[in-house]
Amino acid sequence: HDISIFDNRDQAGQGKKDKKQSLFDVLDIVAKHDAYKQERVLVVDDESFCLTASKQVLKSLGFNDDFQVDCCISGEDAIKDIRQAYQRGYRYRLIMMDFNMDGMNGMKATSLIRELFVEEFRLVREEQPKIVGVTGHVLDKFAQ
């Protein structure tokens, strides 16, 4: 898996990708910060194998997959789950978002999630979770 950080800063939803790193490098950095372990992680992927693999990697880094890692299979479900979690007082520190899903893709979901945090929950950027884009594709068009 390669990883890029979705960083939608404008209202038009244009994505800006920061530097590309391996998934394990990013998760290792996250695991070293205890603050991340105290909050929830949301994994969004329409492939059950990828969801399972992501949960296993997070578990090996010290995350408790029963209480700290939530999973959903679409961008639409992610928006619904985030809304429900925040209404119940839960906070996501990290969202791992698949780039290429049926229906709403990861870029569109990320844009709508950013809007949700601003419009509905009134969170400034620093209060919002990091959203990390993940893809299993190794084609050049996905690496750009």
TrEMBL record:
<feature type="domain" description="Response regulatory">
    <location>
        <begin position="40"/>
        <end position="144"/>
    </location>
</feature>
<dbReference type="InterPro" id="IPR001789">
    <property type="entry name" value="Sig_transdc_resp-reg_receiver"/>
</dbReference>
<dbReference type="InterPro" id="IPR011006">
    <property type="entry name" value="CheY-like_superfamily"/>
</dbReference>
<dbReference type="GO" id="GO:0000160">
    <property type="term" value="P:phosphorelay signal transduction system"/>
</dbReference>
<dbReference type="Pfam" id="PF00072">
    <property type="entry name" value="Response_reg"/>
</dbReference>
<feature type="modified residue" description="4-aspartylphosphate">
    <location>
        <position position="98"/>
    </location>
</feature>
<keyword id="KW-0597">Phosphoprotein</keyword>
<dbReference type="InterPro" id="IPR050956">
    <property type="entry name" value="2C_system_His_kinase"/>
</dbReference>
<protein>
    <recommendedName>
        <fullName>Response regulatory domain-containing protein</fullName>
    </recommendedName>
</protein>
